[in-house]
Design a protein that fits this description.
Number of strands: 9
Radius of gyration: 16 Å
Strand content: 15-25%
CATH class: Alpha Beta
CATH architecture: 3-Layer(aba) Sandwich
Helix content: 25-40%
Distance between the termini: 30 Å
Number of domains: 1
Order of helices and strands: EEEEEHHEHEHEHEH
Largest sheet: 7 strands, mixed
CATH superfamily: Alpha/Beta hydrolase fold, catalytic domain
Length: 226
Amino acid sequence: MANLLEAIEVETDTNPAASIIWMHGLGADGNDFVPVVNELDLSGAPAVRFVFPHAPMRAVTINNGYVMRAWYDVSFEDLAGKSRHADESGVRESQAQIEALIERETARGIAPGRVILAGFSQGGAIALQTGLCHAEQLAGIMALSTYLPLADGFPQEAAPANKATPIFMAHGAFDPVVPYVMGVGSMTYLTGLGYHTEWHEYPMQHSVCPEEIQDIGAWMRKVLRA
C-alpha cells in the first residue's frame, strides 16, 4: 500500500455507511471543500464519511517551478491541449495514493461500492483516472472543472467494473484555467466510450457556484440511496 496521505475527515453522523474521497485543486489543500459539506442536502442518504486528503508537495511548471500542493506537475502546453506528454508519473503516483485511501475505507467497513471519488480541477482529474481504472465498482465519480488526464491510453487500462458507474462532470463556461473545451471534450470522449456521464455547465470561471452545489447534492443523494 502506498504511504497514506494526511487527510481531514468529516462524518455526517455516527457509523458512516458510505465514504466520499474528495480531492482539492492545485495549490489548495484538504481544507478547501470542507465547508461544502454543510451546504450539501444529503437528506435521506446514509451517514457519510468525507475524506479530504492533502496532495503531496511538488514543483509545478505552470507556476514557475514553485513547490506547492499538487497531484501532478502541469504546464501551459498541457492546458492548451498542445502537449501529449502530461506528467504521467505524477498522475500515477497520486492514483496509487488514492487507491490506498479506498483500501483503507474498505478496511474500515466501507465496501468500494459505497465509495464516491470526487475532485476539483487537478483533483477531479485524479478522481477520473483512479475511479475509472479501479478494479472494483465504485458508487460514483464526480469531476468538477477538469479533464481526463491520460486519455490516449485510457481505453486500454479502463476497468470493466466501472463501465456503468455514475459520473458527474461540471464546468464553468468561462473557465480561464482549465478551458471549457477540455472538460466538454473529456465528457464527449467518455460518453462515446459508453460511460454514463451527467454533464452540467454554469456561467462561471474556475470555481464552484451555489447552483452547482445544489446539483452535486441531488446527484449524491441519488447515488448514495441506490
